[in-house]
UniProtKB/TrEMBL annotation:
Designated name of the protein: Chemotaxis protein CheW
InterPro entries in alphabetical order: CheW (IPR039315), CheW-like_dom_sf (IPR036061), CheW-lke_dom (IPR002545)
Domain CheW-like residues, every copy: 6-141
């Protein structure tokens, strides 16, 4: 009997919804600090910050994926920092509202039927009585 392939993903919140991404892309999770804004940068780039001596570009995935801010969320308190070797475009982090947990996902159960033409969405994972959207970190660079 063969076992289905599983992948560990980080589940996090943006607005009122839950999202996840493969932990293989993640280097660390840090508290949001003070950002330095960069003039004339794309709208989804919030600025840069110094993380252990490395200048890291901080991106707002809500702007990339057109996600509305949720009601009652103080939000934007954590930064998911990507492994520069995996993300492929230097030191990048996503500013997220909340970090929930690391979960194991059966890759065969990933529902891809709901995909639009957006290459940034890998599919939807059903978790208990809710859905978690699996996003691709390379889409927001």
């Amino acid at each position: 009997m063969s076992r289905a392939a599983t992948t560990q993903v980080l589940e996090f919140g943006l607005g009122d919804e839950s999202y996840c991404l493969d932990i293989g892309y993640i280097d660390e999770i840090v508290d949001a600090g003070e950002l330095t804004r960069i003039p004339n940068s794309p709208p989804h780039v919030e600025g840069v910050m110094d993380l252990r001596g490395r200048t890291t570009s901080i991106i707002d995935p809500k702007k990339v994926f057109d996600i509305r801010s949720g009601d009652g969320h103080a939000g934007r308190n954590r930064i998911v920092v990507f492994d520069p070797d995996e993300a492929g475009d230097g030191a990048i982090g996503w500013m997220v509202d909340e970090v929930y947990q690391v979960i194991s996902v059966d890759v065969d159960s990933l529902d891809e039927s709901t995909l639009s033409e957006d290459e940034g969405v890998r599919g939807v994972v059903k978790r208990d009585d809710r859905f978690v959207v699996w996003v691709d970190p390379l889409a927001a660079q």
